[in-house]
């Protein structure tokens, strides 16, 4: 069977051009792919090809990321609430009525806002190093919390340090089995996005806004307990940012959640693409019909 063709498109949402990748038949079960920091839909480039014969895959770039418009912080409110608004309107524009959500990193505060707004739309939750539990937070978050509590030049400095090429390299390479498995293209392309004029201020605004995410954890736990969506966790267990305990914690609220801890890091999809794709294929074929 030939591999599906990926289409590269844009759609206007609130006056912004939102870029997205799409593959597969719209008549197949849909997976909405929500990227994390500092990525874009580029992180899903190979997964889309792997799964496009079985599913309809749609992967947008948030404003300020990838190939979507990136207005300055003075003219656009860079918050996760606003990103959820944009993605919600995006699903309406594409007439996506029912879909599984694949979330990585920042995908969680966007995706769970969307899921709690429209629980009837969600067929399944796929979490790949996308945390909603205190259990998942590593010591990495100490400096971030200091910035949340008292934003000033001193607390801001280590956060700006996360936007450097050295930090980018560490984020992709820390915890991987074999650095040769990680394409340098991902590091180069993501750093180029951060290095665009004004984009570092975009990222700093989002780091600060993330402080509103942990207080929402209980609401999202309640959503999981009440709705019991099928949950698949495929996590790089050596992630220095989000611990594997964050993956295992999903089973507290969804006892039937399926958890796979992979011998990789924060961007496990770069190293374990085929294994992740196979877990998704099997899991959704077994569960989406029950969730529909």
SSE layout and pairing:
Elements: E1 7-13, E2 16-23, E3 30-34, H1 45-51, E4 56-60, H2 80-93, E5 99-103, H3 107-117, E6 122-127, H4 141-149, H5 153-160, H6 165-173, H7 184-194, H8 199-209, H9 217-227, E7 231-236, H10 245-248, H11 250-253, E8 258-262, H12 268-271, H13 273-291
Parallel strand pairs: 3-4, 3-5, 5-6, 6-7, 7-8
Antiparallel strand pairs: 1-2, 2-4
Radius of gyration: 18 Å
Question: Spatial order of the strands in the main sheet?
Answer: 1-2-4-3-5-6-7-8
CATH topology-level name: Rossmann fold
Number of distinct helices: 13
Structure description:
This protein has 13 helices and eight strands. The mean pLDDT is 96. An eight-stranded mixed sheet has the order 1-2-4-3-5-6-7-8, sandwiched between helices. Helix 1 (45-51) packs across helix 13, helix 2 crosses helix 3 (107-117) and helix 4 runs antiparallel to helix 5. It has one domain: 3-Layer(aba) Sandwich (Rossmann fold). The longest helix has 19 residues, at 273-291. 42% of the residues are buried. Strand 5, helix 3 and strand 6 (122-127) form a beta-alpha-beta unit. The chain has helices at residues 45-51, 80-93, 107-117, 141-149, 153-160, 165-173, 184-194, 199-209, 217-227, 245-248, 250-253, 268-271, 273-291, and strands spanning 7-13, 16-23, 30-34, 56-60, 99-103, 122-127, 231-236, 258-262. By secondary structure, it is α/β, with parallel strands linked by helices.
């Amino acid at each position: 069977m030939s591999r599906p063709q990926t289409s590269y498109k844009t759609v206007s949402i609130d006056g912004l051009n939102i870029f997205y990748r799409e593959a597969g038949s719209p008549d197949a079960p849909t997976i909405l792919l929500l990227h994390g920091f500092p990525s874009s839909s580029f992180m899903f480039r190979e997964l889309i090809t792997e799964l496009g014969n079985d599913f309809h895959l749609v992967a947008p770039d948030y404003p300020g990321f990838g190939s979507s418009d990136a207005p300055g912080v003075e003219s656009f409110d860079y918050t996760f609430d606003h990103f959820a608004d944009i993605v919600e309107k995006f699903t309406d524009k594409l007439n996506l009525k029912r879909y599984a959500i694949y979330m990585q990193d920042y995908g969680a505060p966007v995706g769970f806002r969307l899921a709690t707004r429209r629980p009837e739309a969600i067929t399944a939750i796929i979490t790949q190093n996308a945390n909603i539990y205190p259990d998942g937070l590593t010591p990495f978050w100490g400096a971030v919390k200091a910035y949340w509590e008292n934003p000033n030049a001193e607390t801001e400095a280590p956060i700006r340090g996360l936007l450097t090429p050295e930090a980018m390299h560490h984020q992709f390479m820390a915890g991987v089995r074999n650095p040769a498995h990680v394409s340098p293209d991902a590091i180069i392309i993501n750093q180029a996005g951060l290095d665009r004029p004004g984009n570092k201020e975009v990222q700093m605004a989002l780091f600060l806004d993330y402080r509103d995410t942990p207080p929402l954890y209980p609401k999202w736990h309640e959503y999981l307990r009440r709705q019991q969506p099928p949950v698949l966790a495929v996590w790089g267990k050596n992630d220095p940012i989000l611990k594997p305990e964050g993956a295992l914690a999903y089973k507290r609220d969804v006892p039937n959640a399926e958890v796979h801890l992979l011998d990789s890091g924060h961007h496990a999809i770069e190293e374990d693409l085929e294994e992740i794709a196979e877990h998704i294929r099997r899991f959704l074929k077994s569960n989406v019909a029950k969730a529909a």
